[in-house]
Amino acid sequence: ASTTDEVAEGSTNRYFTETRVRATPLTGFTPSPNSPVLSTDQLLAAIGKLQAQINNSPSPTWVNISTLAGYTKHASVSATNFNVEVAKINGMIWMRGHFTTINVTSGGILLFSFTASSYLINSFPTANPTEGQLYVLSDIPLEALAIPSKLNFLVFRSSGVTTSMRFVASATLNAGTNRISPVCLGSALSP
Fold it and tell me: Contact, 72 vs 112, CB < 8 A?
């Protein structure tokens, strides 16, 4: 035979195929102690370490921002149907939830804000941010029943650090529920 194409596959010594590799069971796999994967680890040991890292990851604690220090809301935002939450995950601040506007709300209205330092971010769009200025960091998409809109996410800087986070309607919001899919706001001021 001049090529392997001419050699018949045996019942014990079989040809390598990608399909066979993907179908190979992880015989002998056990989750390992939570430790970093090393370049010297064999495949099953590395997968075991990764699984242990996943198993031992703490679940984030989500906190309703209405319970945080300095929380304020506009009169058009319902107090009874408000569940906007923040969490600290791997040194980053995340936000999710929903809120209801009880009447049509004009764009540019400050809907809600808070000053709790444990959930403020340390992120600015310029290298030398000006003291006492509001900065729009991003637009957060809102899923609404009527017209999808966005929240402007702003931070206020004073004495060299973020002192409040504010969320402003970027356009008119109709009365109804607005949902915020989980979104990373930035790195935590105090990880």
Answer: yes
pTM given for the model = 0.69
Q: Which of helix, strand or coil describes residue 14? A: coil
Distance of alpha carbon 173 from alpha carbon 146, whole angstroms:
9
Residue 157 amino acid letter: R
Q: Are 152 and 167 in contact (CB under 8 A)?
A: yes
- Under 8 Å CB-to-CB from 184, ≥6 apart: which residues? 92, 93, 94
Cβ atoms < 10 Å from Cβ of 11:
5
pLDDT tens for 68-127 read 999 999 999 999 999 999 999 989 999 999 999 888 778 888 899 999 989 988 865 555
The DSSP-derived string for 102-168 is SS-B-TT-EEEEE--GGG-B---SSSSPPTT-EEEEEEEEEEESSS-EEEEEEEEEETTEEEEEEEE
Strand order in the sheet with 176-187: 63-64, 77-89, 92-101, 176-187, 134-144, 149-158, 161-169, 110-114, 72-73
Report pLDDT digits (tens) over 43-57.
Answer: 888 999 999 888 888
